[in-house]
Amino acid sequence: MDTKFKPRRRRIRIVTTLGPASSSPDMIESLFVTGADVFRLNMRHGDLEKKAQMVANIRALEEKYGRPTTILADLQGPKLRIGTFEDGPVRLGFHQTFTLRLDEVTGTEDAVTLPHPQTFAAANPRMRLPLDDARIQLEVEEVAERALACKVILGGKLSDRKGVNVPDVVLPLAAMTEKDRKDLEFALDQGVDWIALSFVQRPKDVADVKTIVNGRAGVLAKIEKPAAMEALDEIVEQSDAVMVARGDLGVELPLQEVPPAQKRIISAARTAGKMVVVATQMLESMVDAPAPTRAEVGDVANAVFEGADAVMLSAESAVGNHPVAAVRIMSDIAERIEQDDIYASMRGFEERTYQATGIDAISLAARQVSQTVSAAGIVCFTFSGSTALRAARERPLAPIIALTPRPEIARRIGLTWGLHAITTKDVSNFEEMVGKAKRMALRTGLVKGGERIVVTAGVPFGSPGSTNVLHIAYVQGDELDGH
């Protein structure tokens, strides 16, 4: 593939949620050109026919710009909701009694239906029940088979079908609802690159979904429940990537616990060499305003400093008034932080675990050698994507150019920090490998004639997981004359 669209020099990736404000072909293209690296489809909203058209519009960019596109389908998960009220919204007062009933009842200021028997089975006195994204807070006082008598700890207006969180216990719920299963099959049929799994509680939730996906996409676990934090290392191990899903995490945990939780999740992912996305309310004020607050700028910068692979826009791009501006500003913030000396000194400081394999040894050596010889780039030949992912987790100073014969791998690794993926024919011998590495490096514009590159590959060529070669190559300006 001759890259017409020059790779971004920004290392961290931007995930952009599509929605009513950003679903047209022209808007998707504008977001892509401005800086969107991954497009998120929120399966909670919208019909599947429109999402299929979005997928087609995203993929059409590949032909136009000669650059892989990356699509993430975010499953809704088992969201708990109350029933409806007889006369519209009610107002709950501090310390009043409010009852959640399993039976279908007409909601009043005294009680409403909660049609989820698992909550009643797991309930215990003093258990917290945040409603409507924690705008209402209940505490269970008495537990009956079909009723929970609660005390209102934080009152306010409560209306139909608001969400309920159960942070203090692990509910006996499957990670996927029937809707999720249908949405998953649709997403896989459409060829999306990532499946995001909501409300993960235990490692088995991820393992079950990976069995269904069967390698057709990467599986990303959204960390948004205290139970997931308690099993964090095991969930990270099972997953291909994780997300710091601060929306529900900020409801299920006390707010002051969210920043250290974010750092723990990023650290666990980085240690394991897994990708990590920081999400929710990063530039929230830009849903309406044309510029973010100073605190939001600091929030994005902090995620970059912490070593995240990607940062995500949600409502800002899905329903906001300034989706393109939000992408541009987020990109500008990230680029500025990545150019800072403090960022350079912090990058790659996390402790990482290594296995006694050629791929780990070569990836670590590639970073060290590239810095020693001041290489302009690291070129990885990768069949399964694992070589490129290992190179990225070392956070080298040089940009990483990943060459793969598989379009689906080029798309999937688009979520990864610092990777510039190119789909190209595989090589068959050492000389061909070196020649292609130099030509592709020049074509990206990341490397110029007279500079060095570090090349990693596996021999025999085309064998997944066989990385065992590291080579330093000198790039001449006329390398592009080759084929």
What does this structure look like?
The protein has 483 residues and is α/β, with parallel strands linked by helices. It folds into 3 domains: 238 residues, Phosphoenolpyruvate-binding domains (TIM Barrel); 85 residues, M1 Pyruvate Kinase, Domain 3 (Beta Barrel); 124 residues, Pyruvate kinase, C-terminal domain (Pyruvate Kinase, Chain: A, domain 1), CATH 3.40.1380. 36% of the residues lie in helices and 22% in strands. It is built from 17 helices and 22 strands. It has an 8-stranded parallel β-barrel with strand order 1-2-3-13-14-15-16-17, surrounded by 7 helices. β2, α2 and β3 form a beta-alpha-beta unit. α7 packs across α9. The longest helix is centred in the first third of the chain and has 18 residues.
